[in-house]
Amino acid sequence: MKVVTTFEQTRELGTDVGLVPTMGFFHEGHLSLMQRAVADSETTLVTLFVNPLQFNDPSDLDRYPTDHDRDLALADDVGVDVVFIPSVQEMYPVEPTTTVSPGSLADHFEGPCRPGHLDGVAIAVAKLFAGTQPDRAYFGRKDAQQLAVVTRLALDLSLPVEVVGCPLVREEDGLALSSRNVFLGDDREDALGISQGLFAAADLVEAGERDAASVCTAVIEAAGLEFEYVAIADAMTMEPLDAVGPDTVLVVAARVGTVRLIDNVSFWALEDRLIADRGTTLNGPSMLTKEVHDVSGD
Length: 298
Ligand code: AMP
Fold this sequence. Notes:
By secondary structure, the protein is an alpha/beta fold. The protein contains 11 helices and 12 strands. A 6-stranded parallel β-sheet has the order 1-4-3-2-5-6, sandwiched between helices. A 4-stranded antiparallel β-sheet has the order 8-9-10-11, with helices on one face. Helix 7 (117-132) crosses helix 8 and helix 9 (188-206) packs antiparallel against helix 10 (212-223). The chain is globular and about 50 Å long. It binds adenosine monophosphate (AMP).
């Protein structure tokens, strides 16, 4: 596996490149995107860049977990060919005056809750697409609104890249994997309310409920948490909807202790029924849980 630091080096990789953009501190969610890219592509390129432009909260950026040696070993194990670790200078040699705005896709949810976040994602991803010229790019459904933004970015700018959405990966107890989970500590138990709320609502939808307000109430009641938002949205446009239907997503965000978490369940049509996509669940503790225990000596 090669490690490169410039866009120019990434363009010397050859044809049929699958790109996996990440901010690092890998877990099984990241690794599942890489495995899919490796299966599909001649060359798998993983980018590792903590993008300052997508952090609206400076303290979140300051404490974002980083461990390149750990990440490189994990990427090598799954068969990644190249890891691109650009400096901030390589990504942003000058402060961009050009903006890449997701427009109405950022009107709700993460848009108003994290001002500037989705614009920061959009410009970084646009730069990665332009600078590395991949054939396909892999994104997790964990970040449902980000996936919608990136899909639309490629379409609107006629970028010659196929955006591939991949399943959300959960801990065996349901908690959606996130690099930020390492900060949960004793709040982890409370954080489980998020997936419990989503699963209760998913059961309700599979039993026939279609009213968005009733579905959202079910999330709140089962979770026992305060949410920043709980809503049914169109999975492509991210517009809030009054009713659950095919290609919709139940999106939530909550702050648990000092950690802000997002999660979702999406709904697909199967004949005249709706099927809830809860993601895939690990069979044992994730590498993040194990590392937290190793550190704390539990
Ligand atoms: P991040 O490093 O958090 O920016 O995430 C990099 C990529 O991994 C994004 O496409 C995320 O959607 C994806 N990802 C993060 N967590 C998960 C998860 N639990 N399941 C699936 N994909 C994930």
